[in-house]
Structure formats: structure tokens, C-alpha cells
Amino acid sequence: MSVKVTKDELANVLKNIHALVSREVLIGIPESEDARKASEDGAPIGNAEIGYIQETGSPANNLPARPFLVPGVEKALPQAINQLKRGGERALSGESTAADTALHAAGLIAQSSVRATIVAVIPPPLAESTIKARQRRGRTGTTPLLDTGQLRNAVTYVIRKKK
Fold first, then answer.
1. Which residues, at least 6 apart from 74, have a Cβ–Cβ distance to it below 8 Å?
2. How far apart are CA 5 and CA 47, in angstroms?
3. Contact 110, 27 (CB under 8 A)
4. Domain ranges of the chain
5. What's the predicted TM-score (pTM) here?
6. pLDDT tens digits, residue range 21-36?
7. Which domain of life is it from (predicted)?
């Protein structure tokens, strides 16, 4: 049995695979999403710094760690990896948009997972003094990482070339 090649698609397939493996998806709070609304208590720090403090805690300020970014991404990894794997398979089949589609799908999966983690009640619960301070500002929620929603909404993904 012999095989006859009628059209050489190798260059196209290699280009598609390169488009997938030469870029990466980053999840977090990029500089473009860092600003907080001015009405937010003068907002002396941005969302990225608030996220870091919440993720790692600040014993000096009596703030416990409430990790949301790393656990949220870890929870999303199996599904995100599956998307990237399927994108790789489609790239091997010659689908030119497979890399972009897979990278964006993986980014959205991880972004949604991190945002869902923020909405979940991450221990420890809020201190009574924090709840009362929120009530004085007209807020009724007791979810630790969710007050105005600005931190949650700042979490996004970016796709960039690997360095």
C-alpha cells in the first residue's frame, strides 16, 4: 500500500502548534485592572495590592491570609489543561484558530474559578468589628473577600508571548 501526498500542510500545522506553545495564559490582576473607584475610601492602594494582602495575609495589620488566586487556579487546572490539549489536537489537524480558542477558553475557565473562590466563604470569618464597619457603610454582606466586588471583577486573564 502506498500513500500519495496531494497537499503539504506541514508548515501550516507547525505554525498552528507554535502559536499554542509560544504563548501563555496568566491569571490575576493586571495593572490595567488595578485601579479602584475613587469613592472607595480614597483608595490609597490598588486591587493587585489588596489581592496580594488577602492572598498572603498581613499579620502587622491583623489580616489573616485568605488565599483565593492559587486555590482558584489549581481548582481550574484539570479543565483548563483539557482545553489546551484539545486545542493542540485541533492545531495538529490544521485548524488555524485552535490555539487562540484554546488559550482563551483556558483563561476564562481559570478566571471564573478564581472569581468563584472569592465569592466562597474563605475562613476565617470576618471579625465582628469588620461586619459592623461594613454596616456603617451600608453594606450587609459577610463574605470575607466580597464587599464592593471590585477585587473580584479585577481578576482576569491575559495571553502573552512566553519570555
1. none
2. 55
3. yes
4. 10-161
5. 0.86
6. 899 999 999 877 777 7
7. Bacteria
